[in-house]
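Service request form, structural biology core

Requester: graduate student, group of Dr. S.
Request type: structure prediction, single chain
Budget code: on file
Notes: please return the result as C-alpha cells.

Sequence provided:
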Amino acid sequence: MRYSGGVFALAATLACATAAAEPQARLTAHLVGEPATALTPVRTGVAETYSGDGRLLYRPLSELVPETVEDPAAALKKADDDLEEGDKAFSGMDIAPARQRLEAAVAGYATWLPELIQRDGGTTKLQTAWVLLAKAYFFDGDAGDTKTALRHCLTLDSQLAYKANVFPPQMKRAVSEVRLQYEVAGLGKLRVETTPKGATVYVDGVVRPGLTPQTLELESGPHDVRLELAGHKRAVLQAEVPGGGAVELSAALPAAPSNADATFASVRARLDDPMPPAELARVAEKLGVELIAIVTVSPLAAGRVSLRGWLYDARRNLVLKRATREAAGSDEELRLSGRYFAQALIAGVRLDGRPEPPPHRDTFAEKWQRFRESKWFWPVVGGVAGLALTGAAVGVGVGVSQRRGVDDDAASAVVLTGGH
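Core staff response, request fulfilled:
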C-alpha cells in the first residue's frame, strides 16, 4: 500500500512538473446571445473555469477588445457648465442665450438622471434648470413653454409653490394655476412596452421593479423615462401621464452590438462549416491568442436556455471541439452550468497545438513479439504444454481402456461358444 501511494504521488508530481514546463496556451472566450439575465452568470462561470486551468493563460475579451465607454461624469459636468452659463445669461436678461444653455442643461441632466442622483443625492440641479428655464420662457413671452417647465418642476418636487425668493411677482399667477391643476389631476397610469421585451425602466431617475412590459401608477404630468436593455441602445423619452387616465409608451430598442460582438459577427454563422472561416485566424492573430472559445446562449421554453460552443485552435486552424448543453435556474445554477460547459469544451483535446497522433493498430507479429518478451510467456507456454501432455495422457488411457474392453468382450464370446 505504501509503495502504491508513493507511485501515485510520484506520478502526480511528474504531471505537475510537465504542465509547468509547457508554455500556457493563451485563450479568450466570446459569449453572445439572449436573454441578458442568463448571459451574465454563464459568462462568469466560463471565465472561472478558464482562469483556473493551469494549462491556459486566460485573457478576458473585454481586455483585448475594449468597449467605447460613455462618460456620464463628463456629460454631467457639461450640464453643470450649461446651467451656470444659463443662469448668468438670465441674470443679465440675455434671454436667447439663457434659453439655449438652460435647455442644454436640462437635456444633459435628463439623459443621465440616475447618475445625477447618484452623484448629488437628488435632482436639485435639474429642478434648478427647469425653474430658470420657466422664468426665461416667461420673460420671452412663451406662456405654453412656461407652464410645461413648471409642470416638470412639480413632477420633481411636488411641494413646489410660488415663493417670492424663487419666482418674480409677475409669475405668481402662472405658478399658482399650474399648482392647482397638478393637485386636481391626481394619479394616472403609464403602460411601458419595448421591442424586444425585458428592458429596465427608470422614471425620473429612479429604477422601477420588474421589466417591460409593465404598468406604472404615477403622479400626473411629464416624466423622464429611460429604458435600458443589454446589447441594445438606450432610450430616453418623456411621457405625459394624464390624471385619472392611462397612456402607453412604446419604444423600439435597436441592437447595439459591442465591439466584441462586431469582431465575431462574420464568423459565428460559419463555425459548423467543414473548414473554419478564414477571418477566425485573423481575429486570433489580432487578439494575440492561440485558442478561442465561442459560446452562444439562446432562449428555450419554460425559462431554459441552450448553450452551444466551439473551441478553435489558431495554430492548427481547426475547431477542436463542439458542445451543446441546456441550462436553467437561478444565477448560481447558470454560473455552474457555464463552468461545466467551459470544461466540456476543453476536455479530451490537446491544448498545446500539437496534432493528435493517429491511432496505431498492432500487427500480429508485433503482438507476438511483445508476448514473447513479457513475463507471462513461459508460464503460459508451460501451462499450455502441460495441458497438452495431460490431454495426450488422458487420450492414451481412454484408448487403452477401450482396447481392453474389446479384448474382454472377445474372450467372453469364445468361452460362451465353447461351453455350448
